Here is the input.
Amino acid sequence: MTTVELLRHAKAGSRKDWHEGPDAQRPLTEEGWAQARVLADELLALGEPDLLLSSPLTRCWQTMEPLARRIQRPIVGADPLAESPGVPVVDAGSLWVGAAWLGGRAVGLIDELVTGRPGQRLVLCSHGDIIPATLSVLAGRDGLDLDDVHLKKGGRATLAFEHGRCAAVTLHPAPSVRVG
Here is the structure.
């Protein structure tokens, strides 16, 4: 069995209040850093992961940093986990088409990883628009019974793959942290 831990990045500053550069550079808040440290603890309690992949956007990368430091393993950037300012497929501006493209792109990456790394434990960090689309594609393709595909910032989904198919999904709530 191959396990994929799919994380939604921890709490970042708001888009509307970020004026210090492109949105891709928007960092975690103090609460987000605390969530990232708790996520590292939770993930390490399950064993050391074999691979860390992240959207190249700062908030995802920072979410993975405490885990990467603790296991002294590099984070690998993966564009299919990143938000996209536009999608090459359009249908009169339908959000459904964009979500399908994002989810399909992420599932393609996950399928490559599962095929190329059987029996390993992989941690991937992505965004709030990509994760529901990805979980929906997997549910439809692999016949999973999911009541909800939304994760709050810092939440995660554990995906268990057997014979190239997602056999089970467990959703984990975002860590509750206190700061200040």
Remarks:
- The chain has one domain: 2-172.
- The first helix runs from residue 30 to 45.
- The mean pLDDT is 92.
- The beta strands are 2-8, 51-54, 75-77, 121-126, 156-162, 165-172.
